[in-house]
């Protein structure tokens, strides 16, 4: 009798594991997506957060798959004219907008500001990082992993596929994306004409993590944004990084400091015509 009961319980455990495994496989984002670049055909409806316009129709959804890994992104394309190339703006989001919904990373302020203030038409690339991954190679800020390989494969594909001016690729991002902006620029300096880190997470008090190879961007135009009263990522993150860059000879550094007790300062940072005029004037030598 006991043997029968044990066998029954064992069978139920095995069945539960099989069902859970099948469920998780079924819920794996983009498991049926083809390798490489494909269209994300889902409908993007506005979610309950005033910051975001997930339904922005001119930001089309795409999926990039490499091996077993995939991520989604939104891309805005200008009205393309023959024999003309266009700048590319890349926006890297922060930790709060991980996922596979192709919606949470759609910040209202960046989208609105590009519409209002960009001095010329441009492509806008907004990738969404896999949950618990950051924008580095191995996951500098997190435990799971980094988006570097997939992100750069996809970026290179876009640079080849579309009429993008490779001398005018601009990188910006907030919080984890601010860290990612500097990390990507120091590891792929040849790709970016200018960078704009917003409230970047560059240092961890406990672990001492910091961005390496800053000499690679010492001659690059940079504009930093941060709130002196940021309770999430201390203002000192930006000050310490700028001091290190200046010690390496960096001179082309602009800053905008705010007093609002906010971490999400994307609207404050981007909603300024001077910022976009400056950005679009930069070009790789």
Brief overview, please?
This protein is an alpha/beta fold and 285 residues long. It is built from seven helices and eleven strands.
Structure description:
With 285 residues, the chain is of the alpha/beta class. Helix content is 30%, strand content 23%. The chain contains 7 helices and 11 strands. The strands form 2 sheets. The chain has a 9-stranded mixed beta sheet, sandwiched between helices. A two-stranded parallel sheet has the order 6-7. Strand 4, helix 2 (108-117) and strand 5 form a beta-alpha-beta unit. The chain is globular and about 75 Å long. It starts with a helix and ends in a 5-residue tail after the last helix.
Order of helices and strands: HEEEEHEEEHEHEEHEHH
Overall form: globular
Portion in strands: 15-25%
**Sheet of most strands:** 9 strands, mixed
User: Span from first to last CA?
Assistant: 81 Å
The total count of helices amounts to: 7
User: What Rg do the Cα atoms give?
Assistant: 21 Å
* Structural class computed from helices and strand pairing: alpha/beta
The portion of residues assigned to helices is 25-40%
> Uncertain segments of ≥5 residues (pLDDT<50)?
17-27
**What is the average per-residue confidence, as pLDDT, rounded to a whole number?**
89
Q: What is the number of E strands?
A: 11
What's the arrangement of strands in the largest beta sheet?
Answer: 1-2-3-5-4-8-9-10-11
Name the features.
two-stranded parallel ribbon, single chain, 7 helices, 285 residues, nine-stranded mixed beta sheet
Per-chain topology:
Blueprint: H1 2-26, E1 36-39, E2 59-66, E3 69-76, E4 86-92, H2 108-117, E5 123-128, E6 133-134, E7 145-146, H3 148-161, E8 164-174, H4 176-187, E9 194-198, E10 222-227, H5 236-247, E11 253-258, H6 266-270, H7 273-280
Parallel strand pairs: 4-5, 4-8, 6-7, 8-9, 9-10, 10-11
Antiparallel strand pairs: 1-2, 2-3, 3-5
